[in-house]
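Let us work through a complete example step by step.
Step 1: write down the sequence.
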Amino acid sequence: MITVSFGFRIEVRLPEQPGRTGVIQTPHGPIRTPAFIPVGTKASVKAVLPEAMAALGAQALLANAYHLYLQPGADIVDEAGGLGAFMNWPGPTFTDSGGFQVLSLGAGFKKTLAMAVEGNTDDDVIAEGKQRLALVDEDGVTFTSHLDGSRHRFTPEVSMQVQAQIGADIIFAFDELTTLMNTRAYQIESLQRTRRWALRCVDEHARLMTERSHRPYQALFGVIQGAQYEDLRRTAARDLAGMGFDGFGIGGAIEKVNLDAILRWVVEELPEDRPRHLLGIGEPDDLFTAVAAGMDTFDCVSPSRVARNSAVYTYDGRVNLLTAANRRAFAPIDPECACYTCTNYTRAYLHHAFKAKEMIASTLATIHNEYFIVGLVDRMRASIDNGDFAEFRSEFCGRYYA
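Step 2: predict the structure and record it as C-alpha cells.
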C-alpha cells in the first residue's frame, strides 16, 4: 500500500489576481509558499554548506537528475538513504527530470536557450561552433555525457527510475525541451511527444511507488511546454491537468515580455488545488510577476552563479564587487541586509577576496545572494497575507530598478 505523505492547501488569495499563499506538505516537512528553492545541482549549492542554506532561510533545495545520474550515480545516492541524507539536508528536496540538461547541453547552449530568429525554418538548432550531442526520438533521448563523452539514453521510464533512486520529495516528468528558434510545426510535434511521455511517466511512477514502498512517497509534477503560443500552452495544461499529477511545472524558453501572459494562460487551465512550480526564474521583477500570476515555487541558479562572478543584489540594484569603488568600501554589501555576510564582512574584504581568487569570496557572496532572493519571496508571501502585495511590489521595484 502506498502512503501519500504529500499535500497542498491554499491560505490567502490575492484580490482579483491568481496569486496565493499556501503550504506544500512533504515527507520532510512543509514548504510555505510562495517560496524560492535554491539550486544545488550536484547535491551541493556551490561554495555553501547545507547548514548555511538552512540558516539563511531556504525551505527546500533542488538538485539535478542528469548531473547526479552521471556523477556519482543515482544508485549511490539511493544507497546513502536518498538525496537529503546524502547531502546532509534534513528538509524537503526537489529534482528536475534531467530533460533541460540533456537537451540544452546536447545543443551546446549550456545555461541559456536560443532566442527567436526571424524567418527561421530549421529545427536542428545548435549553438554556433558546437556539435549536436543529443538526439530525440519517440521513445526518448540519446545523449553524450559532457563529462567523458560516454553515450547514455534517457526515456520517461529511465528518468522516473533515476529520480526514484535519488529520492527527492518532489520530482518532475520527463519532457522535451524546445527553443524559441524551433518552428511552430516542431513545437506542436514536440508537445504531442511530451504528452505521451507524461503518460508513461505517470505509469512508471505508480509502479515505482509500489515497488519502493519502503521509501517516502515522491510527488510527481507534470511539465507544461508550448513555447510562447497561447493555444499550445493551454492545450498542454489541459492535457496534463487530467493525468493525475500531484502538481505542475511550467517550463520552456520564455521571453521576459511574455512571462505574465503565458503564466496566466496556464493557470486558467490548471486545477487550483495543486501547487505550481516555475522552472528557472530568479530575477526580482520576474518573481513578482510570477507570484501575482499564481506560481507557488521557483528555482534558479542565477543567485549563486552571479555571486561567483562577484555580482551581488542590493535593495538599490545589482552591484559588482570587483569595481574600484569597493576597494576601500568598509561597509556591508547592503546596510539593510541582515545576512551572515553583511553582518560580518565588508565590500572591501570581498573585493580583495575576489581579486585574490580566494574561495571564501564565492561562499560569502552566494550566502548573501541566496538570503536576498529567498527573503524577497518570503516578503512577498507576507505581503499577500497582510494585504499589501501591490504596495510592496511597487516600492521594491521602484527602488531596485531606479
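Step 3: interpret the result. The chain has a mean pLDDT of 92.
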